[in-house]
UniProtKB/TrEMBL annotation:
Natural source organism: Microlunatus soli
GO biological process: glycine biosynthetic process, by transamination of glyoxylate
Alphabetized InterPro entries for the sequence: Aminotrans_V_dom, PyrdxlP-dep_Trfase, PyrdxlP-dep_Trfase_major, PyrdxlP-dep_Trfase_small, SP_NH2Trfase/AEP_transaminase
Positions of post-translational N6-(pyridoxal phosphate)lysine modification: 192
GO terms for MF: alanine-glyoxylate transaminase activity; L-serine-pyruvate transaminase activity
Source taxon at top rank: Bacteria
Residue ranges occupied by any Aminotransferase class V domain in the UniProt entry: 39-334
UniProt name for this protein: Alanine-glyoxylate transaminase / serine-glyoxylate transaminase / serine-pyruvate transaminase
Transmembrane segments: none
Length: 367
């Protein structure tokens, strides 16, 4: 059986989780608080306020859902679409595909707008896919391909539809302005550029979407109407906090610590740090003779996709990185599982030293 001392100290340069900010790790070791303790509720309120800043929103209903990013996706759809509602979904990678599955399970009529993997979405084509959808959904940063899409352009074209945006890999890594861009419902995850362990899904929904929500969604746990009684500013307006579920208090304290650290550095500076580290890595990979996968001009700095050179065993290289250098990188997603690597420099890892380390290790192994 593995004892804690035997757990290897990895450099997590895959598509997530990333190595947490030291402040987030320290937060996990603080004394545990009860989920209705006033001291904890104050931390929760501050966490929601800081989440508003990283989302770029004033939405009162901005909160960390107690589950991973996929639960954020479920919450977004289960609260907005029911039987027969039209959901237009832009698909340019694995997570767009997953959105289609989730929306279909809610009974929605899914209008899927496919794009080539490695390319950004075409906002015009997505907006024209149906005359009157209830929701339009797109992934801001496609982790499966390393591509950034223009959510602001989609927001400008959404018409009467509600815009759902997946910001799991973009939040606190690249520019994100939910309100300015017309995002009505957004969900994210803690384990990438927020630099916290996996386990929470920062979520935001504006009044427009909340008023048009499904009244009794088939998920009790993710019913935003019920959750409002426990977290977020909306709850205080309606007289105090009531028990909904046992919030993972240690995780919220850890997220609180990471957000404080991010905002102390400054969001613009954090975005610039990600941009710089990503550029260093992408330039370095090309100097090694490797070819990048994502379309030029749309590459995410925090998640780089690179083509595995012909004749190279992609899994063997990843294994050697792990065994010799304690470095984790990701395999490609879907059809690209053995032909693409995914290298993340997210949150605490978005630093030049991390970029140089992975470049040196890859150069050594590829010879
Ligand atoms: N959406 C995107 C863009 C992701 O990258 C991920 C996870 O990698 C998810 C959704 C799902 O999040 P989780 O794995 O935390 O459930």
């Amino acid at each position: 059986m593995a004892t804690p001392a035997m757990i290897p100290d990895r450099r997590l340069f895959g598509p997530g989780p990333s190595n947490p900010y030291p402040e987030a790790t320290a937060g996990l070791g603080l004394p545990l608080l009860g989920h209705l303790d006033p001291a904890f509720l104050a931390i929760m309120d501050e966490t929601c306020a800081m989440l508003r800043t990283v989302w770029g929103t004033d939405n009162a209903r901005t909160l960390p859902l107690s589950a991973t990013g996929s639960a954020g996706m479920e919450a977004a759809f289960v609260n907005t679409v029911g039987a027969g509602d039209v959901a237009v979904i832009a698909v340019n990678g694995l997570f767009g595909e997953r959105m289609c599955d989730v929306a279909a399970r809610c009974g929605a009529q899914v209008v899927r707008v496919d794009h080539e993997w490695g390319q950004p979405i075409d906002p015009q084509r997505v907006a024209e896919a149906h005359p009157s959808p209830k929701v339009i959904a797109a992934v801001h940063a496609e982790t499966s391909t390393g591509v950034r899409s223009d959510i602001a352009a989609l927001g400008a074209l959404k018409g009467d539809a509600l815009l759902i945006t997946d910001a799991v890999t973009s939040i606190a890594g690249i520019e994100l302005r939910a309100d300015d861009w017309g995002v009505d419902v957004g969900y994210a995850g803690t384990q990438k550029c927020l630099g916290v362990a996996p386990g929470l899904a920062p979520f935001t929904i504006n009044d427009r979407a909340f008023e048009r929500r499904i009244e009794h969604p088939q998920s009790w746990y993710l019913d935003l109407g019920l959750l409002g009684g426990y977290v977020g500013e909306a709850s205080q307006k309606h007289g105090g906090r009531t028990y909904h579920h046992t919030a993972p208090t240690a995780m919220v304290v850890s997220l609180h610590a990471a957000l404080q650290r991010i905002l102390a550095e400054g969001l613009d500076t954090v975005w610039a740090r990600h941009a710089e580290a990503g550029e260093l890595l992408q330039d370095g990979l090309q100097k090694l003779g490797l070819e990048l996968f994502a379309a030029q001009g749309y590459r995410l700095p925090e998640l780089t996709t690179v083509k595995v050179p012909d004749g190279v065993d992609s899994a063997a290289v990843r294994r050697e990185l792990l065994d010799r250098y304690d470095i984790e990188i990701g395999a490609g997603a879907g059809a690209y599982a053995s032909t693409v690597w995914r290298i993340g420099l997210m949150g605490h890892n978005a630093r030049p030293d991390a970029a140089l380390l992975i470049l040196a290790a890859l150069a050594d192994i590829l010879g």
